[in-house]
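Q&A log
Question type: sequence-to-structure
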Amino acid sequence: MLHDASHYAPIGDKVILITGFDPFGGDSLNPSWLVAQALDGQRIAGHRVVAAQLPTVFGESLHQLRALATAHRPALTICLGQAGGRSALSLERVGININDARIPDNVGAQPIDTPVVPGGPAAYFASLPLKAMLRSVQQAGVPCEVSQTAGTFVCNHVLYGLMHMLQAQGVGPAGARGGFVHVPWLPGQGTPSLALRDMVRGIHAALWAAVLHQSDIALGAGATH
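Response status: OK
Response body:
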């Protein structure tokens, strides 16, 4: 879902692009899109938030993300996705160059062991201040973690593709940064879950931290397994 011209930020405004996905896997809603919608139009430290929906489809999701980046030239892009089974907002550290779909995407495609970008590097790190974002979200009273895996479905596909656009292809203004955050199920979708208002509050806090911290802070948040 692309915004029309009426949603474009005024000239001189910096843009935060935030995306969510449409429902997939038999669900009737996707909390990642509901969170993005709730933040559309917010102003954060001289930036205007622009929300857009991506399809849960290999390939097409990246085509639409590129079109959004070209139209809005965001200083910061944060893509959101649903991760059923997780209990906290998950700030993704790395996207890997592989598609390995356990279930079909929304057009029935189910790539197995194919690259996101043929010939691309094995992985990209997100260019967000993850530890600063973690601290900010936790201080807002919302459970949050740094995640070491974005999976191998369309979420990882988009994270890797986003970072390839920013770092290898130079899409967007100089210094543009990006990354990915997984959100849990909503109550009623499954357990564990998190209320929509808490997700929105947490992502709002994360956006503030991402804008205000050009470099990250030192804070332990690693994993032992």
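Response note: The longest strand covers residues 14-21.
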